[in-house]
Amino acid sequence: MYWLTPALLYEPTWYVYLVHCADNTYYCGISKDVDRRIHEHNLSRRGSKYTRARRPVKLVWKSPPKTHKEAAQMEYKIKKLSRRQKEIIIVTNNISLIK
Fold first, then answer.
1. How many CA atoms lie within 13 A of 17 on its CB side?
2. What residues pair up with 14 in beta bridges, in sequence order?
């Protein structure tokens, strides 16, 4: 859904995030509210099936704001990266590996 603001048409803000799971793996997802999503991953049935079996999870990286389309595309690319490449993104905050 798009909202019309003074002289701007914009889509709500989305974030791509990486969490570190209890079994020492990484999970990548997208959300408009990352804090709420991390809470869901840790405490509710609304967390992803992957993270429900690997609790607790800890947020280790979050992208700059994106449109939904950009966030979904970035998530897809991150999920294809190796563990080492994901760790480089986390440590350096350098997203050049994703492009």
1. 20
2. 66
The span from the CA of 19 to the CA of 30, in Å, is 11
Kindly state the tokens that stand for 13. Answer: 């803000």
Domain residue limits, the chain: 12-97
Tell whether the model's pLDDT for residue 7 goes beyond 60: no
The pLDDT score that the predictor gives to residue 9 is: 60
Class level of CATH domain 12-97: alpha beta
Please say whether the beta carbons of 29 and 48 come within 8 A: yes
Provide the CB-side half-sphere exposure for 25 (13 A, CA).
10
- 3-class secondary structure per residue, 27-81: EEEEECCHHHHHHHHHHCCCCCHHHHCCCCCEEEEECCCECHHHHHHHHHHHHCC
